[in-house]
Amino acid sequence: MANPMADEMRRFKGSDEKNPFEAMSERFDRAARILGLEDDFYKVLRVPSRELKVYIPVKMDSGHLEVFEGYRVQHNFARGPAKGGIRYAPDVTLDEVKALSAWMTWKCAVVNVPFGGAKGGIVCNPIQMSQGELERLTRRYTAELIDFIGPDKDVPAPDMNTNEQTMAWIMDTYSMHARHTVNAVVTGKPVALGGSLGRREATGRGVLFTVNEAIKRFKLTPEKTSVVVQGSGNVGGIGAELMYEKGYKVIAISDIGSGIYNANGLNIPEVLSYLKANKTLEGYAEADHVGNQELLEIECDVLAPCATENQITSENADRIKCKILAEGANGPTTPKADKILHDKGVFVIPDILANAGGVTVSYFEWVQDRMGYFWREDEVNQRLEEKMVASFNELCRFSELHDVDTRTAAYMLAIDRVAYDTRMRGIYA
Question: Tell me: the pLDDT tens digits for 366-400?
């Protein structure tokens, strides 16, 4: 296919392996070419619809003003309102937020929920900020975005270093401007304010459901499957605990500082209780201690990187020794590492499917808020399992039909759906 954007895309190729926007762009480019996407829609889908950059003055506890930089990128609206989390971190960049917003578009399309993608971030160090400072930061950020978010426009959610309290502040600020309660403006809220049962566990549970399907391809059962999990938060910790409950042998897990390993399997509830009490895995006696990078290279059946981006690169991909890579984090594997893993025969459950449990139950929360009726937790989990299993099987069929790896198949499936809706709607001009 002749492609007028080929020159522009060439500048992404290999220029910065760890730049998340470049990684997303390279994968999009490959999938779009194989799919035969028309040049016109290629141009439209590859770029965000809107990028917002705001400066947020906040009165600190000391009495002086500090100005923080914040972003909100809305990638696509073809299938519905934009959807995506807000992260607070000192190293947030616009490129990262742009990549994550695009990933959200493809993630929503892969699991076939009627949202487009968005993402937000504020450059700050939340660990060094008081609860009052965080509240004032959140409310002013919300006020700056007030014309661009809403149940039918863009629905934020928690992400790195944000939580249900953050969402409650956003909901309240938006509602005060609207002059009535609008609980559907965010998801990941406290249940008492219209949050969904099962939302906190949803991303980790989604990882479990896709791993359940993947091990069937290797004729494994949970009891015969060893698992290594990088990360012990809402994705890694909950995913590890759910897998442990289902009989999987979780042999290693890590926190932000280091990891622990026991070839005979870890008692995950005990490990997480220790972590909660001590704020670290250091000193846990029933396992050997390993570094975070060393943990990724432990031989296992399932490796689940559930921490952050760029953990598996061209530098360590050849030392990865798993059968299945279940990407609980966003962008844990770089494009250069993809080829190495593919050549090694690793079966990849790509991030835009593996960790889509969170956005799926966020969609369920939005639906429940809109109709004012809430489901039991077992109903939420059952609907999530149906959606994740169907999406996994559809991705595998797409991979086999087009003879491509699973990541490329996931992008192709997502792009095909978003392109179809864009094509049917047409371009308003």
Answer: 999 999 999 999 999 999 999 999 999 999 999 99
Q: Which of 119, 189, 249, 323 is catalytic?
A: 119
Q: List, for the chain, all residue ranges whose pLDDT scores fall below the cut of 50.
A: 1-14
Give the containing element (helix H, strand E) for 58. strand 50-59
Where along the chain do its domains lie? 48-180, 202-354
Q: In what order do the strands lie in the sheet with 154-158?
A: 50-59, 65-74, 116-123, 82-89, 154-158
End-to-end Cα spacing for the chain: 26
83 given a catalytic annotation: no
Q: What is the pLDDT of residue 15?
A: 52
Question: Does 48-180 match 202-354 in CATH topology?
Answer: yes
Say what the pLDDT of residue 7 is. Answer: 40
d(CA 283, CA 159): 29
Label residues 355-370 b or e (16+ Cβ within 10 Å = b): bbbbbbbbbbbbbbbe
pLDDT, residue 257, reads 86
Query: Is residue 65 exposed (0-12), middle (13-18) or buried (19+ Cβ within 10 Å)?
Result: exposed
Going 50 to 26 to 349 to 78, the CA torsion angle's sign is positive
Which of 343, 251, 264, 360 has the alpha carbon at shortest distance from 297? 251
**Per CATH, the architecture of 48-180 is what?**
3-Layer(aba) Sandwich (3.40)
Q: At the fourth CATH level, which superfamily is domain 202-354?
A: NAD(P)-binding Rossmann-like Domain (3.40.50.720)
| Per-residue pLDDT, 215 | 98
